[in-house]
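Tutorial handout. Part one gives the primary structure; part two gives the three-dimensional structure as tokens.
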Amino acid sequence: MSAIRDAAIQYAINRNWKIFPAVAGGAKKSYKAARHSGGANWGMTNDPDVIRRDYDRWPDANVGIPTGEVNGFFVVEADTPAAHNGVDGIASMRELQRLHGELPDTLMAMSPSGSTHWYFRHPGEGIKIQQSAGKLAAGIDVRGEGGMVIAPPSIRGDSSYVWVNDLPIADAPQWLLDLVTAKPRRTNGANGGGHEEAVVTVDYDAIAAALEVIPNNDVGWEDWNRVAMIVFVASAGTARGFDLFSRWSAKSNKHDADKASEKWEKLRTSPPTDLSVASLYYLADQAYPRWRHITIDDFYAYMPMHNYIFAATGDFWPLASIDASLPPVVVTGDNGEPKKIKPHSWLDRHQPVQQMTWAPGEPELIKDKLVIGESGFKARRGARVYNLYRGWHHQRGEATRAGPWLDLVDKIFGDNRHHALSWLAHRIQRPEEKINHALVIGGGQGIGKDTVLVPISHIVGPGNFRDISPQQIVSPNNAYMKSIVLKINEARDLGEAGRGRFDRFKFYETMKGVIVTPPNTHPVNEKHIKQYDIINVCGVIITTNHKQDGIYLPPDDRRHFVNWCDLTCDDFHETYWNEIYGWYRDGGIEHVAAYLDAYDIADFDAKANPPRTEAWAAIVDSNKPSEDMEIQDAIDRLNKNLDDGGRLKGAFIVDELIQRTELSGRLDTWLEDLRNARAIPHRLEECGYLPIRNPDRADGYWFLNGRRLRMYVSSTLTEREKMAAARGCAARIDDGWRP
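Part two.
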């Protein structure tokens, strides 16, 4: 990490920036605290000696730089859709420039996810640049007073932050300053007297309709807080307004009713003055441009819950919102005269669905079949199923121009290139078909394991590429199964499962039903939604930095294709990541899409066992317990002793293993420990020996020397040979050997 430390020192010396040691991994937090740093936020300093001491203490730290007047600049960040739930801040920035004018050339950086950072000179003392997330436009954040950024060459995941250029920091255009400068709050006047409040007309129906289309897929606190403030202003802080906000907040698994109520009360004491109902409508426009002109054809009645599916987003609308947002429907009455009925009643009769699912390759409305248990679709005449899957057609470029990405593929996959490309191309060409093995991408930090997958996340489309941690696999909320590619980041052992942790052995067992079929379907649990079944087609990618304790693979594993890259971050020149992300941004992703569309996967069998690589074997060997090797040695010695004595080998009891061989003290103790009684049969099975029942006793045990004992025989013997070996062992013990 010396490059990061050196950069931090240079920022302090050459630019006079105050910096702090940011927590490793990309977190926007400091290892230092103000209370231990003379009151300086994050422990920021531009003293080179202090910086050296900080990085000696935290050598893996990234570089954090406070924004605002303290360092003389502010930063505008535009997010990428792949890393931010489909929100395209880059597109929003292009639209802002189209409306207001081009941004000047200025210092720019890029994050590992491809987000772009524009640095602008602070306008001066007394002017406050307001911190915001998504307020300027969807997917665009502003880092101003009290804010901070992670700066190059900091590392997040397996990639680095990079400078796009080395230009001087420019003045922001006036239109941008107008949008990001905090407005002064209204006061009660110089004499402290009150003022008449304007009469506010609240359109609750419009607020409700806007909130219905604004997504809340577990949004971060800043976005949640912003919606709370906007709804508070739009509804004049009324109880009905709080009900609408609370309903929107409850879309998320993170909803806390007490915190929502507490937030509303705080807004009463300090209401926002720089937001309006227009801010709410802007968010709705970004989510679904037709939200103001929604028709009844945009909805389906979901009969299991008697709610209504909004086809644009897949969200549920309650009955009240349907009737508030849509006009009555004119139908012909029993007497032949026209009459009006409520929209929900019309949907119940004309647009009902009996199920919903997620099924690539099927239309939005699936007719004449239902999802039945683990078997999948079964014909059912008249049935209607709503399909939540949304295919995505990413623009295609020229396959022959995918060279920069293929160069990275070669670096990471080497001789495994063809299998990896076939796996990825299959996800794009045949998303409706399950691949019955996971793609494991291993190697050190900073080699591009995440970067090589950036085009895939764009090509399969928003929502179809999910990025989760190993711990989330056991979460009750498993909406991640609705994915064409499910990427599990940084697999590693987290300790003993028996202590409430999630170890690699439990991870392996849990992943069985995720990686392969059967089951052909998976039950999905989402907050406030009745459990429903989806088609199991997700393709699993596991990334890991750890070969020894990253993932567990037993010798008979047939579910993982393992690739390991031995390169290090030092094998990539300092501008490499800048160049590859710049190429992605300038049309490279489109070229990758064209290349994978045309890639020949005729010889790729998605259901076959994957090839076993050297990396696969290395991980299998690293997971073999030391007891297995010691037990196998003991069995070999026992069989040799039996050969020397002319006795029939191939069967034994554990007491023989302990007392007729020279065991290590550790193994002797392990075998005699009653707490390992259940583990011993599994360890012996790994060594090729299985329990054999005594056919002469109802309980199946061998009664030898007055004790019930379990006997083990070699799995390589025939059934007749196994029984002969067992009876030979029994005779051997009856002849006089005593355990």
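Part three, for discussion. DSSP finds 22 helices and 33 strands in the chain. Residues 184-200, 496-501 have pLDDT under 50 and may be disordered.
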